[in-house]
Amino acid sequence: MRTIAVLNAKGGCGKTTLATNLSAALAWEGYQVVLGDMDPQQSSADWGVNRPEDYPEVIGINSADGPIRAPAGTDYLVLDSPAGIHGPELGQLVRRAQTVLIPVLPSFIDMRAAHRFLGHLFSLKPIAEGEARVGLVANRVKPHTIIYRELRGFLGDYKAPIVGQLRDSMNYVRAFESGLSVSDYPPYLAEQDWDEWATLLKWITSRKSRGKA
Questions:
Q1: Domains of the chain, with CATH numbers?
Q2: Phi-psi region for residue 42, left (φ > 0), alpha (ψ -120 to 50) or beta?
Q3: What is the pLDDT along the chain (213 residues), one digit of tens a residue?
Q4: Are 11 and 86 contacting, i.e. CB atoms less than 8 angstroms apart?
Q5: Sequence-ordered list of residues with C-beta below 8 angstroms from that of 128, at least 6 positions apart, any chain
Q6: How far apart are CA 114 and CA 129, in angstroms?
Q7: Is the pTM of this model over 0.90?
């Protein structure tokens, strides 16, 4: 079983959007996926409750109900972490994961916050020793803007790869409200989103995304 932690200490950077859409995209690939909601706001859990039965199943587990343990046969466990995670809680989560995804928004506030968080994250033993791999995701981007170029330059300064970018699209907002993802939308509505997710999934399902653990 692969465990993927979606992390960023800053709130509002799109962790839940990334976690829910990643879970659905993997389910569409035929994997058994569990989405663990560790955030007290329980947004991922709400998304799972609203997910229609005629779409690929994503099994939801809420940390408010007890420890998150994926059932036998799970291929991927995706963990949606809370904002402000730090200290022992962060260390325990990183030790549990083989892959860590960090969404970062194209804003100076978010980049400054990410700089502090990433500096600490890369000092943790599981990351430093390669037991878990980190992938950076440029989130809610508008290509061909100055701030987007600055975000790419900022992320490029780190030793972790930029494994994907997700455009600033209302598709994510509308899909979330119905328990859906952009992978659930038909191509005439979300073909560009599908292309972006294909790039991200290629990395997620590759050996490069897996730590030594």
A1: 2-209 (3.40.50.300)
A2: left
A3: 999 999 987 888 899 999 999 999 999 999 999 999 999 999 999 999 999 999 999 999 999 888 899 999 999 999 999 988 888 899 999 999 999 999 988 788 887 888 888 888 988 999 989 899 999 898 988 877 776 677 777 667 777 888 999 999 999 999 999 999 999 999 999 999 999 999 999 999 999 998 775
A4: no
A5: 122
A6: 21
A7: yes
Separation between Cα atoms, residue 51 and residue 20, nearest integer Å: 10
Give whole-number Cα distances, 211 to 26, 66, 97, 119, 132, in Å: 19, 27, 8, 19, 4
Quick one: three-class SS letters along the chain?
CEEEEECCCCCCCCHHHHHHHHHHHHHHCCCCEEEEECCCCCHHHHHHHHCCCCCCCEEEEEHHHCCCCCCCCCCEEEEECCCCCCHHHHHHHHHHCCEEEEEECCCHHHHHHHHHHHHHHCCCHHHHCCCCEEEEEEEEECCCCHHHHHHHHHHHCCCCCEEEEEECCHHHHHHHHCCCCHHHCCHHHHHHHHHHHHHHHHHHCCHHHCCCC
Which is it for the CA torsion 206, 114, 147, 169, positive or negative? positive
Tokens describing residue 122: 């890369």
Which residue, chain included where needed, has tokens 């290509």? 143
Q: Residue 107 is encoded by which pair of tokens? A: 């804003």
Name residue 192's beta-bridge partners.
Answer: none
